[in-house]
Design goal:
globular, single chain, 22-stranded antiparallel beta barrel, mainly beta, 1023 residues, five-stranded mixed beta sheet
């Protein structure tokens, strides 16, 4: 620091001594200041220009240059206040160094002026009236996945997501519960283009995600929005020099949990006890006195079938442009090898490009995206079912079966009908020998132009084309993998198909002000055509194929060919009005009229409307709210949405079989008949939504909170109801508007952001509840039964349904004094409760119709997610927890492992009842299970509640001065991350988060591929 000196006065000066002393004392602080230099960047390493830098408590103020740099006079200990529109304000304390470390400005996560994309337009967040969730894309992308749907798990209230560890496997997503008996997946809109199956597109290209949850927000999409809308905006170019960004990670994956199954001696003990209890001799392989006794094989099938998989994702993008036109081009590669032994994997190549520009009154843009993917599928055979699926078959595979056997055709081990008596699938062999894959090529193209006819009146034409070409291939060679799994014929199947959607949209928008009244108008007309076709060829014969192609099939008679094609069209008129008075009173009205070829001409059109209003109390002059409240808004919405997802292309039309010959006058006459009965009066399903909400912001939006209540009622749900066989229809059902369902619940979202110098942190959490109730099932409201579920009026869809147990019979007296279960019921068997109070009446027989009860709900009482991220200087840290509470699930894998039959067993089965061990709840094993101990009961219903550390990440961004020294890098960040790192749950299966979307059979785990634990390292660079 410079010293302040006061020199002596020279003779003859007329300046008063006291004035001069005061002047120099005042100048001392200025002399003590240094010229402080710094540079501002955003989180992606781009310079932040035009930011304001002030010295707190003083008048000094400067702006950052185009490269983000700034200089300002300040003294040691001063606080620099840095602010910029769209970024969080930060304070930096001046130290002893004249050059500050690089300063990163974080985007305002909850800024009221943030622009939110809604249907056919945008609004500021503060002007939202409907129920729209804005997803933090940075948090979502920290989950390693090929599918955008999986990224949304736990990131927003009202959204439930379930996936599996299968590479390229299906991810199910629902918004606010079940609203139809068909497809409950939401509509995805990418850059304004409605699409299905978003898993073809790379999440790396996503810029923003908004979720429209109610009719007031989604009604503009009409019939396609009944199950919600997810709007995705991909990255666009910005004016400026060309920029290259590189992002990538590579990691390893494995199954985080091992199911405790029995080894060879334990397995042989259980099976021998089961055979003895059934009065059977011991299987030779399990009988120590038999020469065929197996003592030298003890296969651990989890060890043999599971491996470490590899996941990697790489993306490179080029962007830039001018004020006239900007561009963005990215290329990506994703690859995931399975954690189960075999060729199964999923890989995808992607290209995404866009350009947009403006010349005078004319704006224009275009998008082209292309993906090519290959998915290797898991074990499946055409003529030999893999009971319970690959996962369950792997666990129940017996330890006395070897993995490899060179004496068998194909070289893999199997079981013997006489020696082992067990039908056991060698999943390693099936995975290796059976070839099953799916290839997809998808193109999404879009061009648009917008002309401002007069000031604020704009006409927009949007044309898009979405096409998918696919190939499904399956080949089974001849093989011998033992009892049941013997294939004497090869089997070859190949399906080629394509689906395409063309869309033309014409819209007019006009916005104007009349004093304090601000009005936005939208009107439009759209036309969409969906086309699909496929051709399937199969061949099976005893002759060996040297090459698994149809060209090598010698016997043409072994070939069969089938095909299909169809077309559906949708014509729509739409309109919207947004009204704003002084930023206090907001009103939105949406309208859409849809006409679909899936309905008959008499019922083709449906009208759908949505209304929402909001009151910004914080802007009211007559309300004196505390200064801490920066925003307070009350909003409510009501509307209706249509749905046709349950319908095929021609379900309202009857088909006539013109080869229905019959005998007339003792001669065979040619005749025709209706094959199936249809309902020509089929009409739109309609979903009506109601919601009320409050949005609160405190301390300049540092703390935000939203609470919302919703009701979602669907009526005229299209479903198949049974009709008498005497009608002569096949199938004996009628597809018609028959059912009604209601969903309701509360949603909560809270966020907090803080900063202290170089330390920044953000906390966000969400939770929601969901209740589902069936209001109507059509006809006589007969219940719908599933395998262990029941759907009836007044209850929820697919509630678990089965027998209640009351322990085990301990002696013959217990059996005699209980309702009749079977002629073979004996001590050690499960005692099932008679629900009509006749437990003590042995003349009463337990039946499915009278003695099954509800065993729990597969719908959690609450879903939740919690995000935390922080940064300090060059370091950043984040973690994300997700889970649910209060759900029940049926563990079908555990049921299979506790069957007490010839398959392998869970270690719990060793605790089975026997005369010298009666203090147990595990029944005696018995081949054939005559008492039905393994039937659907509460023995296999478990809590599905869990808490997961879904991801955690720590990263380091290299200082700008170091990066700049390379002369080609503008940003460099490396990070370590993990996903699915910790699961807290009492569930005995692999993973309580599993695929279960049977609709009427919900919460059933019959062997979903467990989500893997992933460890990865990543890099982000800017050139």
């Amino acid at each position: 620091m410079k010293k302040c000196k006061i020199d002596g006065l020279q003779p003859g000066r007329r300046i008063p001594l006291l004035f001069l002393v005061l002047f120099l004392l005042a100048a001392c602080p200025a002399l003590a200041q240094e010229l402080i230099k710094g540079i501002l960047k955003d989180k992606d390493g781009r310079p932040v220009a035009a930011a304001t830098i002030t010295v707190k408590g003083k008048a000094a103020s400067v702006s950052s240059e185009g490269d983000g740099s700034f200089t300002i006079h300040a003294a040691v200990g001063d606080l620099l206040v840095i602010s910029s529109i769209g970024y969080e304000t930060v304070e930096i304390k001046v130290g002893s160094h004249a050059t500050l470390p690089p300063i990163t400005l974080n985007t305002k996560a909850n800024s009221l002026n943030d622009v939110v994309v809604v249907g056919y337009g945008t609004v500021k967040k503060k002007d939202l009236t409907g129920s729209v969730a804005v997803v933090n894309v940075d948090d979502a992308k920290k989950t390693a996945s090929y599918d955008v749907a999986k990224l949304l798990q736990g990131q927003a209230a009202g959204i439930s997501v379930q996936g599996s560890g299968e590479p390229g496997g299906y991810v199910q997503i629902k918004i606010r519960g079940i609203s139809t008996f068909g497809d409950n997946s939401p509509l995805f809109v990418i850059d304004g283009v409605p699409v299905s199956a978003p898993y073809d597109f790379s999440p790396d290209d996503i810029e923003s995600i908004q979720v429209l949850k109610d009719a007031s927000a989604a009604a503009i999409y009409g019939s396609r929005a009944a199950t919600g809308v997810i709007i995705i905006t991909t990255k666009k170019g910005k004016a400026g020099p060309a920029r290259i960004s590189l992002n990538g990670y590579i990691g390893v994956q494995n199954v985080p949990k091992k199911i405790p199954v029995t080894n060879r001696p334990e397995y042989q003990e259980i099976v021998s006890a089961a055979e003895t209890n059934a009065g059977l001799s011991l299987a030779p392989a399990n009988d120590p006195t038999n020469p065929s006794y197996v003592s030298n094989i003890n296969t651990d099938w989890q060890k043999a079938a599971l491996k470490t998989g590899v996941i990697q994702d790489h993306n490179a993008s080029l962007s830039g442009g001018s004020e006239f036109a900007s561009y963005n081009v990215s290329m990506g590669y994703f690859d995931q090898t399975g954690y189960q032994v075999g060729p199964q994997a999923y890989n995808r190549y992607s290209l995404n490009s866009s350009m947009q520009g403006k010349k005078g009154r004319f704006s224009f843009g275009a998008k082209f995206a292309y993906t090519q993917s290959h998915k290797g599928n898991y074990a499946a055979t055409n003529g030999h079912a893999v009971y319970g699926g690959t996962v369950t078959s792997m666990l129940t595979a017996i330890p006395t079966m070897p993995v490899y056997d060179s004496t068998r055709l194909g070289g893999y081990g199997g079981t013997d009908q006489v020696k082992n008596r067990a039908i056991s699938a060698n999943v390693v062999g099936i995975n290796k020998l059976v070839t099953d894959y799916s290839n997809r090529n998808r193109i999404l193209a879009n061009v648009w132009g917008e002309l401002e006819i007069i000031k604020n009146l704009k006409y927009r034409l949007n044309v898009s084309y979405d096409r998918t070409d696919y190939k499904n291939y399956h080949y089974e060679p001849q093989f011998d993998m033992g009892y049941y799994y013997i294939n004497t014929d090869y089997y070859l199947s190949e399906q080629l198909g394509q689906a395409n959607t063309g869309l033309v949209e014409n819209t007019l928008t006009y916005n104007f002000k009349l004093g304090d009244h601000h009005i936005d108008l939208l009107g439009g007309m759209t036309y969409q055509q969906d086309n699909g076709e496929w051709m399937l060829a199969t061949s099976t014969d005893t002759a060996k194929l040297n090459f698994p192609t149809f060209a090598d099939v010698a016997n043409n008679g072994a070939n069969t060919v089938t095909s299909w094609n169809g077309t559906a069209t949708l014509f729509s008129l739409l309109g919207r009005v947004n009204y704003n008075y002084k930023d206090r009173y907001l009103l939105t009205a949406n309208f859409r009229r849809d006409g679909s070829s899936k309905f008959s001409p008499l019922h083709r059109y449906g009208n759908f409307v949505g209304f929402a209003g909001a009151w910004n109390l914080a802007n009211e002059s007559f309300l004196e709210l505390p200064s801490q409240i920066s925003s307070l808004k009350l909003r409510a919405g009501y509307g209706s949405l249509g749905n046709q997802s349950s319908l095929g292309y021609y379900d309202w039309q009857s088909y006539i079989d013109n080869s229905a010959n019959y005998v007339f006058n003792n001669q065979l006459a040619v005749g025709s008949t209706t094959v199936s009965v249809t309902d020509p009066s089929l009409k739109w399903e309609t979903t009506t939504t109601k919601n009320v909400a409050a949005d609160l912001g405190l301390w300049n939006e540092k703390l935000t909170f939203t609470v919302e209540y919703f009701e979602r009622t669907s009526k005229d749900i299209i479903t198949a109801i049974p009709i008498p066989y005497s009608v002569g229809s096949y199938p004996a059902t009628l597809t018609t508007n028959a059912a009604s369902v209601k969903n309701s619940g509360f949603e909560f979202t809270v966020g907090y952001k803080g900063t202290a110098g170089l330390f920044h942190y953000n906390i966000s959490a969400n939770a929601y509840t969901l209740k589902n109730k069936v209001l109507k099932l059509g006809g006589t409201n007969n219940p719908i039964y599933g395998s262990g579920s029941k759907t009836e009026v007044g209850k929820e869809v697919g509630q678990l349904y089965g027998y209640q147990t009351e322990g085990l019979f301990q002696n013959t007296t217990d059996v005699a004094n209980h309702a009749f279960q079977s002629a073979s019921t004996a001590p050690g068997d499960v005692r099932f409760k008679a629900q009509n109070g006749k437990d003590g009446d042995h003349s009463y027989t337990l039946t499915d119709a009278n003695d099954r009860v509800y065993l729990g709900s597969a719908i959690p009482k609450v879903y939740y997610g919690f995000n935390f991220d922080a940064s300090y200087s060059s370091w950043d840290l984040s973690f994300f927890f997700q889970g649910n509470e209060g759900s029940k699930v049926f563990n079908g894998v555990y049921q299979a492992l506790m069957a007490g039959q010839y398959g392998n067993a869970h270690k719990d089965e060793l605790n089975y009842w026997r005369t010298d061990h009666t203090n147990t709840n595990v029944p005696r094993p018995m081949i054939g299970d005559p008492n039905g101990n393994n039937r659907f009961s509460n023995l296999f219903v478990e809590s599905g509640s869990y808490v997961k550390l879904q991801n955690a990440q720590i990263g380091y961004t290299f200082p700008t001065r170091w990066v700049s020294g390379t002369h080609f890098l503008s940003k460099l960040r490396i990070y370590l991350a993990g996903t699915n790192l910790l699961t807290i749950s009492k569930y005995k299966g692999y993973d309580p988060d599993f695929i279960s979307d049977g609709l009427f059979n919900r919460g059933f785990d019959y062997g979903s591929f467990p989500n893997p634990r992933t460890y990865m390292i990543g890099l982000q660079a800017g050139l």
